[in-house]
C-alpha cells in the first residue's frame, strides 16, 4: 500500500527536471532497481533524492569503470597472444602431415561438389528456359507439369515454386535468383544515422462508435488551438490538421473510423503512431468500439482512451473503465497500462490534458525522422479537382518534400507544382509528419500508396511504367491468402506460425463458445488467435480486417453480405460457413493435422427476394418472389436468410410462373416459391438457391 501523506513526484515530471526523456529515466530507474511501470508512475521524496544524488555521482563512477575495463581488456589480449604463439608452434611440427591430409580432404570435397547439380532460376521463367538450364528435353517437362494439372506450352511462363519441384525430380538443387532492379533498390529505405534523426510530431487517428463524439472532439481540439494561436477559423482544405501545444505539434488524421484505418493498413500504409479511442461516458463500450479495439490491437499501435460526454448527468466513467478492463484494456489508475482521459468536447473539459497525454505517449514512442534527405510519405486522400487536376493529400514520413521534386506514387508519377498546408496556405517545403496537399500528378494516385522522390521526371515516368507492368503480372499471379485447404502445407513450409481467425455468429454465446474452443487448438507448430468476434452478418469491414491481417473468417449460422462476398473473392479471403460448432472445430483441427478432405463444395445458383406472402388453402404459405441474381432451379437446395441470419435450410416444394409449374426462373423475373415444411416466410426475406457439387480429389 502507498502512503498518502507523503508528497509524490511523477516520473515524467522528474525527467523534465533532469533534462532527460521519460524513456531514458525509466531505463535508469530499472537499472537502479527502482521498479516503475511507465511515465505516469509516482516516486516518493526519498527515492527522488536518491536518484538525484546517484545521477550526480554517476560521471565519476563511469570514468573509474572505464579505466578498469581497459585494464581487463589489455590483460585478456596478452593471454590471447600467448595462446596463439603456443598454437603456431604445435602447428609447425605437424605441418607436413597436415598438408597431405588437407590435400586429400580438398579432393574429396571437390568430388562431392561435382556430384551436386545446382541451378539458379528467377521468380518466373518459360518451360524452354528451364529445359535449357537443366539440359533436358522440354517435352519431358511439359509431361510432368500436365501430370500435376498445369497445362502449359514451351513458351509459357511457370513460377519458381513449380519450376523448383520439376528441377528437384531431376536431382537439381535450386537457388532463387535475387534480382534487385532499380525499382526495388529505390523502394528499400536505407537506415539513417542516429545523429541525423530529429524528433517529429506524432500522427494521431481518432476512432470509436457512432455518435460517441469523434468529430466533436476533433472540432474542440482545433478550436482550442485557434484560441491559443489567435487565428480565427481554420478552413479544412485537406484530410489532416495540425495542432500546436507547448511549442510541440500533433497531426490529427481526419479519416476517423476503423474501416478507413484498416483499409490503409491492408495496403501496407501504417502511418498512424497513436490511436485515440473515443468512448461515451453515458453509453459505454459498444460493438463498433470493440471492433475499433480489435483493429488497433491487430495493427499494434499505442492507444489512449478519451472518455467523452462526462458533463452529462447520466455519465458513468467507472462503468466504461470496467467494460474496457473486460476487453484487456486496464486503466492506469487500476494498475494497468491504458491511459484513460475524461473529456467533454461540448464543454471543452480535459482537452489540454488529452493533448498532453498524446505528447507523453509520443515521447515514450521516441518518434524520430531524418529531414535532410529526399522525402518519403504516404497518400491519405486523392481526388480530381476542376482547375487543379489530380490532387493528393500526402503525409511526409521521412525527409523533406520540396517544390519541383520529381515524385512517384504507385503507378503514378509527377512533379510537385504546388503545395498547400492544412490551413490552405501555399508552402515551399514540408518536413516529417507534415500533411500537405500536392498538385502535379499525372493521374489520381490511390490512397495508401507510398510516395517517393526520385532524381528527375523522366526516371519517375520509367519507374511508373515498369510498376504498371509488374502490377499486371501480380494480378495474374495474385498473392495467395491463407485458407484451411492449404494450411497444413503452409505449416510444413514454416510460412504459417500464427493463424488469425475472425468469428461471426448469430448470438454472442456462440461467439464465445467458438472462440474458446478454437483458441484451445493451438500447438507448438501453429498458434491460433481470434482477432475479432461479433454478432451479425459477415460485412465488408470483416473482410478488410481479414485481408489486412491474413485471417480466415468463420461464420456460424450467418451469411456474408453480397458486397462482402464480392470483396472476399477479390481479396482472396477464405470464408467458411457452418451450422454446427463441432464441424468448425473439426475442420480446423483436421487442417492443422493435414487431414482436411473437402468432398463437396457449395455452388450458389441464385438469390430471390420475398416481395409478398400468399396463403393457399391446403398448401400453406407461398412466397411471391423477384429473382435478384442468377436463377432459381426447381430441384435446388435453398436457405432462407433474414437480416443476415439463416432461419431455415431445405428444399423447394413448388416453383411457379403465374399458374404454370416451371423448372427454373431467371434473374429479373417474378415467381411463386413454396418451401417444403416451412411456413414462417416473411416479406423482405432472401431465398438463396444452391447446389452441392462434389470436388474431385
UniProtKB/TrEMBL annotation:
This is Translation initiation factor IF-2. PANTHER family: TR-TYPE G DOMAIN-CONTAINING PROTEIN (PTHR43381:SF5), TRANSLATION INITIATION FACTOR IF-2-RELATED (PTHR43381). It comes from the Bacteria. HAMAP family: IF_2_B (MF_00100_B). Belongs to the TRAFAC class translation factor GTPase superfamily. Classic translation factor GTPase family. IF-2 subfamily. NCBIfam families: IF-2 (TIGR00487), small_GTP (TIGR00231). The keyword Cytoplasm applies. One of the essential components for the initiation of protein synthesis. Protects formylmethionyl-tRNA from spontaneous hydrolysis and promotes its binding to the 30S ribosomal subunits. Also involved in the hydrolysis of GTP during the formation of the 70S ribosomal complex. Pfam families: EF-G_D2 (PF22042), GTP_EFTU (PF00009), IF-2 (PF11987), IF2_N (PF04760). GO terms for molecular function: GTP binding; GTPase activity; translation initiation factor activity. It comes from Thermoanaerobacter thermohydrosulfuricus WC1.
